[in-house]
Queue: 2 jobs
Job 1
Amino acid sequence: MARLRRNKNRAPEPVRSRGRRAPIIELNDVTKVYPGGHMALDRVSLSIGRGEFVFLVGPTGCGKSTLIKTLIRELDVTDGTVRIAGRDIGQMPDKKIPQLRRNIGTVFQDFKLLPNRTVYDNVAYALQVIGASRAEIREQVPATLRLVGLSTKLHNFPDQLSGGEQQRVAVARAFVNHPPLMLADEPSGNLDPVTSIGIMQLLYRINKTGTTVVVVTHDREMVDNMRRRVVELYEGRVVRDEVSGGYTEESTTEFGMRMQAEMGVGANGERKTNGHGHSLAR
Amino acid sequence: MSRIVFFFSEAFRALRRNGAPTLAAVITTVVTVVLLGVLIPVFQTAQAKSDEVASQLNVHFALYDDATNAEIAQAKAQIEAIPGVADVTFVSKQEALATLKSELSDKTIVDELHTNPLPASFEVKATNAADLPQIEREVMGTTAAGKKDPISPAISNPFSRQQSTQQIAKVTSALKIVLTVIMALLIVASLMLIGNTIRLSIFTRRREVEVMRLVGATRWFIRWPFLIEGVVVGFIGGLVAILILWIGKITIVDPLSDHGDSFALAQHNSTIAFPVLIAILFGAAILVSTIGSGVTLRRFLRV
């Protein structure tokens, strides 16, 4: 696929560029029927522009995870087309799929870290896979781990970390090669509210660097007042697609504070989540 | 280059971190290779022995003393033309007597004979010893009246030195089939055993493979470390097994072989040479564990 990597001299990529450039995700009447007849996606059409921050919400079983899986071609769609950066990935030969996945950072509820590797090696693996040089790895990995606030835990193994920290490692791994698109499937599903905010803030910060971020969550209440685009799925259909509460440009801190307010975490949540979620998760 | 180093370091990291499954795979390889290493020569010897017995089986056709050379030559050609006949040898009266003399313990008996009572004969061997009775029937023929009607007037009657030709032939061919089947089963079983153990060790790491795919690793990128692991497991397993076999050879088999007759099997010259045997086993161990890794991975690598 065409080089999806962002420009090195990353011009601040405001979210409002939506609609002016080719959408990074474009679904056209996508239908997915699982063997056995369950229809997980029912003619879903959706367009997400570069640099957007989108919440994908809906109850369990509404097809959110199926949608995410079709975006990385973990699943083939039954009907319709999925375009990533203008390219129909249904037509993509199997050989090209690793290439596609390198340009999409993915974060999951269960972290999916390699248990027998240190934090550093887990993140480095994503770079080794794309054939990055040792110098690049040595530069990028610590930088990314600093970004997610884990620079002191480089040599810990995943099972020595809290849930929030593990998810930060997963985010770092997804982001280490600066993909233009990041998918987070229930990134805070296993985490307590305060730690969740930390992760959301982190994703927001990543979005600020120009990466399109799609966050799947079943927590409708949280996103309702997020002032971000919300796409709601119900039984495989898009039943709502709007920017809730009016979009505003805001700093990561403001974003975090507002989220805390939304989730009723309290004033001291700020201090505890700014750095590492683990202080509370432990 | 750095990629190769990476693959090797990945493979050895995995071997270290998955100590128990690795050990299981190595031990399985050792056991199987040792078993094969012992049984292959034993089976080969048994096969060779039964072949030898079977090849000695024959039927003789006595010739009339007044048969002319032309008749004998014609009869020989006729017998050779029968399907299943491997070899026809003319045994003259003198040769028959000499053979008899060599077989008798009291050789003076022969000297006391003034004439040679033994007939000249054809010694007929079959490609497959079980066909001998059939060959005999064809040579002797039968008229409509049920009387003997040999294919040549020179032939008088069949005789066999071994009374139980037929039985021996049956037993040896049955033995051969049984040995071949057991051998084949053993090889299949060992392939599956090694393959399965490796599958198990990879299965415990399917999550790892899933993550690798997720971050965009190509199939071969994922596969190489596993294949290298398979080679290493096969290498170590093969090495240990060969060491055991070698110790067994010098402590058990070699002393017995020195006694000649008492353990003729072990030095039977049709048995595979030890260096060749270990080379084959070693190669097979590595090949099987590598293929085992590769095949198992296919399941997890489906995109």
Note: The interface with chain A takes residues 2-3, 6, 13-14, 17, 207-208, 210-219, 221, 303 of chain B (CB under 8 Å).
Job 2
Amino acid sequence: MTPVLEVTDLVKHFRVRSGLGDSTAVVRAVDGVSLRIDRGEVLGLVGESGSGKSTVAKCIMRLIEPTSGTVRLNGTDITGLSRRQFRALRREVHMVFQDPYSSLNPRMTCGQIAEEPLRHHRIGRRVARSERVGDLFEKVGLNPQMRARYPHELSGGQRQRVGLARALAVEPSLLIADEPISALDVSVQASIVNLLLELQQDMGFSCLFVAHDLAAVEFVSDRIAVMYLGKIVETTDRQRLFAEPRMPYTQALLSAVPVPDPVEQRQRERILLPGEMPSPINPPSGCSFRTRCPIAEPQCAEAEPLLAEVDGDAHLAACHLIGPAGEAPKIRSTVERAPPP
Amino acid sequence: MAVDPSARVDPGSLEPRVAVPGKGRSRRAQVWRRFRRNKTALVGLTCVVLFVLAALFAPVLAPFTYNQNFFEAVLAPPGGEHLMGTDDLGRDIYSRVLHGARVSMQAAVMATVLAMVVSLPLGLVAGYYRGAIDSVIMRLVDALLAFPFIILAIALAAILGPSLMNVTIALGVGSVPSLIRIIRGEVLGLREEDYVDGAIASGATDVSVLSRHIVPNLMNTLLVQATVMIPGNIIGEATLSYLGLGVQLPRPSWGVMLNAAQQNLSSGPWMLVFPGAAICIATLAFNLFGDGVRDVLDPKTHR
Amino acid sequence: MTATGQAADTASTTQTRLQVDDLSVRFHTDDGDICAVDGLSFDLGAREVLALVGESGCGKSVTATAILGLLPDAAEMTSGRIVLDGTDLAGLSRSQLRALRGSKIGMVFQEPMTSLNPVFTVGRQIGEVLTRHLGHRKRQAREVAVELLDRVGIPAPRQRISEYPHQLSGGMRQRVMIAMAIACNPSVLIADEPTTALDVTIQAGILDIMRSLRSDLGTSIILITHDLGVVADIADRVVIMYAGRKIEQAPVEQLFSQPQHPYTMGLLGAVPRPGMAAMMHGADRRLAEIPGRVPVMTAPASDCSFHPRCPRAADRCRSLRPELEGRGHDHRVACFYPGEEGGAQ
């Protein structure tokens, strides 16, 4: 079966003016990303700010044009299509944005916003469309009477629901959710996560869930891909990633997320990473993580590790230090906890 | 849907950061309520309304026509039959000021509308498409901006020849360069909004993105700009008319009246005082009103 | 400072550094008054990390600005006493308060970029704090600034000191903010969402610095956050706020193991925990939700403000306001039906 989404060697380089004068630098925001999402699957794309995860999402939507690489949507390479040709295919994919405030046009009613995809794809007549929007509102847990409201009258969670209604109006086969909950309060996050899962199971769309919040990604995703500095460094199914992370960065990331349980949290071994993510203008040679890796060896600076199978084709990781049988490199906990006062 | 939808209607969500206890009011009503609290702006608005009424109903309100000569009362001081006195040709200054408001408003408003009509498409195209077309438009704008607005307007008026229509065109075209620049800047910001991406993702064409998403959100900026441009154009019209590049005799314009007053400064200072005061009050009123409008509408001071 | 002597008589571990008593803050807005904080009391012991937890609009940041004396013009402190090391802040003049900020109370905000001046170097900004509050000479201030940057874990502090804020990453800026906040060795540090804008791997480092401040310098910390993971990591005691009022307070282990208020329970259930999804299948994979929204309080509550969202709400909750009552050692909750069983005591 053809996957819903197949991204191959996606590259997006931005040119930026650097310093004074006309010299330009290249920001390697996305540097060779490949991923696939099967029908009905939720892929979590997780990474810290600057890892390029949102750029991947926007390239798939062609909201920005990729520098190279292909994006296949249900088997069709959309990178080669003209804007006009792609417009018809936009039915197959839609997006939920991070900011519930800037993602809805303040001059349109919520009903008009959710109706937009139907209008542009010329689905149904006015009355039919209006009915469909009413159904959509119920589906995302909004009172259909809210169609007449303007976004500023709604709370953040309600706006995010309107965004979901718009995204799902034409029943796309792929939903891209770019940090859909990170701007919301904790209790609202829970309701949006629940809604997303419920709709996904009900409508069966595939989903690329982009987030920096590992706990939320774990909760919603079937498979997870970890990005670091424009590249995917590890990808596998949810259980395996959390049980047996191979790449040292994944290990560190998992250990850095605080668990909401003081007893457990204070006993966990944590790997504290030195420094910060290097600039994508000047990525390090070899492995891009080596500058912060607690166990980096000279070979890591020489060759770039490729994403390779560590445990069959279900688990891929990019690290020179992974053992021949796919065993994860051992990192001793690098922090001693300060003793309690 | 497995779950009963009625149980899930209007679910958990939090109040937006700005708390509005009396919610559900329309945006327009909110804007008006905010504006009303600004007393100086209300004074400005009142004067603006009075001027507009004066301009509209000048023929009815004026006791005399603007070119009726009272030769028995040449240079009569204010008071009595002639509220503001008469000029050196015995014409009633009050009537002429009222008719002058008509000319002034007509030129200022029409010039502003003209500038908007010309600048909007150019600014939209430059800001939305960027690239080569943006470069071409903006270089032209830069070149024109090298001349101060009034110099540009004088040059245009001189080329076109004196008439109310030409003054309007000169003033309108004169403010096009700066207006294009403002609109382009605003469009550059708006096209980065997520809702524009949302519209594109929904399959919207460029025309639809521009007309439904960008232009409606430009309206506040345009309105604020209009309130800045109108008083500028009132002064512009007066200046051009004063220089003889504007309205042709015998139609009165505040600028023309000032020009006539210049020769009679000692014998009839009221010839200077009343049209001068009209210009001052009109521009001040528009500026006060404009400040109030900006406070409630400008996206940069209010989110 | 007469009260300090009296406080010193008690054991040093229970010594109160900061005491907030019946704090109420009202905002005068275009649309009427809003009660942002209503009758809030808590105290902060020496070397203690107290977490103020709540969702946006619960009044936790307003509390911080009130303590710092930095309330905006539209806000008014309608009641309350704030006592820092025995000094009642209400009795201080503006300039005395200003001297207090930065010397005895340090502050760290969520967004370090807006709190740092972009046109001065990092060293100069830290140095200014030192010269203003401690009267250091320029050279001396520079040396101390280097030490401070080193202490907050900034590598190569001697080079960093002559850099400008925009040359630093978000995590580094937050470290600089902490360095400035602790420059005068304040007894209390107020950290308002200090790690919210940062990545988790950076957050871990910032939390470690705060921990070391507590253990090495004996700083007491008020941590304002909505992140329960951060609370679990670093807090000693937790105050849960809802609609401007304190609804529960407990030592951290107890709060997480035996939450008493239905809102606290809801918050804890709303956050996914590792391994949770693996145990839930199909339609069962759900997080606990708290339906409804935080009310905007236009007047002090006369009932339980959580009742419209509470699964346990009864008539009593709609007509009476529950006051804080003890539920075990140092555990207080404002609810008529607290605990697992809904208060079957």
Note: Chain C touches chain A through 57 residues (CB under 8 Å).
